[in-house]
Amino acid sequence: MDNLKFNLLKDGDLANTLPLADILGDEWDEGMIRYGYQIAINKLLKTHDFEVISGHISIDGKTTLSLINKKHYLFENIDIWCHEVYASEALMLSIIKEMNGLCETN
């Protein structure tokens, strides 16, 4: 799967970006990221065009590269062992804003 991950990150021009967990920092544990990300991305995708470009989806999880609004890339490697998310800068900022908004309402 490492070759698939590398190729998809490269295809989305995301190879030199940080994953969501690294950007959020130590205040967010794995469980919080999984929960918050799912709510945030579902909310964002309701108002944006979304197309899966490439990847592998199975019963165990998914590794995908998607195109949002025909200009922002989203890479997800999500299964029971890991939760990696990379995104174009503007999209990543939107995801983080939505996730931080969840904290403010609780």
User: Which consecutive residue ranges, at least 5 long each, have pLDDT under 50?
Assistant: none
Q: Strand share of the residues?
A: 25-35%
Which shape, going by the Cα principal axes? globular
- In total, the number of strands is 4
Q: What is the name of the CATH topology?
A: Double Stranded RNA Binding Domain
H/I helix tally: 4
Please report the first level of CATH classification, the CATH class.
Alpha Beta
**Rg, Cα atoms, Å:** 13 Å
Summed over residues and divided by their number, the pLDDT gives a mean of 91
* Spatial order of strands in the largest sheet: 1-2-3-4
Structural classification: alpha+beta
Listing every helix as H and every strand as E from the N terminus to the C terminus, the arrangement reads HHHEEEEH
Largest sheet: 4 strands, antiparallel
Please bin the fraction of helical residues: 40-55%
Total domain modules = 1
Distance between the terminal alpha carbons, to the nearest Å? 37 Å
CATH architecture group name: 2-Layer Sandwich
